[in-house]
Amino acid sequence: MTQKCERFIVFGVVQGVGFRYYTSRQGLESNLTGYAKNLRDGSVEVIVCGQSDNVEMFAKWLAHGPKSATVDSVIRSGPLEREEECNIKGFEIL
Q1: Nearest to 60 by CA among 30, 16, 92
Q2: Is 7 exposed, middle or buried (0-12, 13-18, 19+ CB in 10 A)?
Q3: Number of H helices, E strands in the chain
Q4: Name one GO molecular function term (predicted).
Q5: Which residues are known to be catalytic?
Q6: DSSP readout, 2-30?
Q7: Distances (CA, A) of 23 to 1, 64, 81
Q8: Which end of the chain, N or C, is surrounded by fewer C-beta atoms within 10 Å?
């Protein structure tokens, strides 16, 4: 299996509804590392690293998110190239 790290920006009602908590929990259950971080524009940035298949399943989950959120769209910016972004332990809520 191939390891990869990707960045997602999630838009919709994703702040103040537990989105980062559920994203972290889903990431850990999927054996992924990364973080979920609120952005000033009301979106959430998600960095995720792990096995390709797990990242793909996580991306599908991210398109819907938890029941408490309303995901309007997700921008997937593709593989990360900076090594420090891929060297994350656990799944943090920032």
Answers
A1: 30
A2: middle
A3: 3, 5
A4: acylphosphatase activity
A5: 20, 38
A6: -EEEEEEEEEEE-SSSSHHHHHHHHHHHT
A7: 23, 11, 22
A8: N
Structure token pair of residue 92: 């943090």
Give helix 19-29 / helix 52-62 axis angle, nearest 10°. 150
Contact 60, 1 (CB under 8 A): no
Asked if pLDDT for residue 68 goes beyond 80, the answer is: yes
| Residue among 67, 52, 53 nearest 14 (CA) | 67
Tokens of 34: 């990364």
Q: Which of 12, 9, 14 minimizes the C-alpha distance to 72?
A: 12
